[in-house]
Write a structure and sequence with these properties.
The chain is of the alpha/beta class. It is built from seven helices and six strands, in the order αβαββαβααβαβα. The two termini are 26 Å apart. Bound molecules: guanosine-5'-diphosphate. The site of guanosine-5'-diphosphate has 19 residues, from helix 2.
């Protein structure tokens, strides 16, 4: 379409985090403004596009989802190759997904580029009744790792765009 010709920048971003934290719903929220109650609406789709404007620049993000592969094997270098940004996602209602962030951070730093912009995202903020991870836990981890942090809800469409925009602005600043 005409956007492709006018787009000033194209960059790759990746979604990472445990299975069922909401990665594919974050992707469908960003790219199509859709949410699906059942898991994995589209198995096998590995990326989608999101167009955004930062200042006077038109930016096209190609956002990769693991398409379920995180269940079966470690995600490796090809997934991270060339990515300038990552949304690192956990589920605020499942403590284990927060504890596993150490593993994901290790992997990102092992395989990703050293200047990759990482945004820590606590998803499912709409389910605060079943919360197992406090906002403060997310904040202190983010502070420790020197990355940005936000709680979001793909379901209620809370802060999803904001988290993404924060990543894009930061990428734009350092590149
Ligand atoms: P993925 O395996 O990380 O890609 O996770 P999915 O996107 O498939 O989501 C796993 C499950 O969590 C699905 O049943 C989704 O409907 C649900 N889910 C995802 N995001 C949210 C959210 O923000 N709030 C609630 N309540 N459920 C969510």
């Amino acid at each position: 379409n005409s956007f492709d010709e006018e787009c000033d920048y194209l960059f790759k971003a990746v979604l990472i985090g445990d299975s069922a934290v909401g990665k594919s719903n974050i992707l469908s929220r960003l790219s199509k403004n859709e949410f699906h109650l059942d898991s994995k609406p589209t198995i096998g789709v590995e990326f989608a596009y999101k167009n955004i404007r930062v200042g006077d620049k038109l930016i096209k993000a190609q956002i990769w989802d693991t398409a379920g592969q995180e269940r079966f094997r470690a995600i490796t270098s090809s997934y991270y190759r060339g990515a300038l940004g990552a949304l690192l996602v956990y589920d605020i209602t499942r403590r284990a997904t927060f504890e596993n962030l150490k593993k994901w951070l290790y992997e990102v730093r092992e395989f990703g580029s050293s200047d990759m912009v990482i945004i820590l995202v606590g998803n499912k903020s709409d389910l605060s009744n079943s919360r197992e991870v406090n906002v403060e836990d997310g904040q202190s981890l983010a502070q420790l790792e020197e990355i940005a942090f936000m709680e979001i809800s793909a379901k209620e469409n809370l802060n999803v765009e904001e988290a993404f925009h924060q990543m894009v602005r930061r990428i734009h600043e350092i590149n």
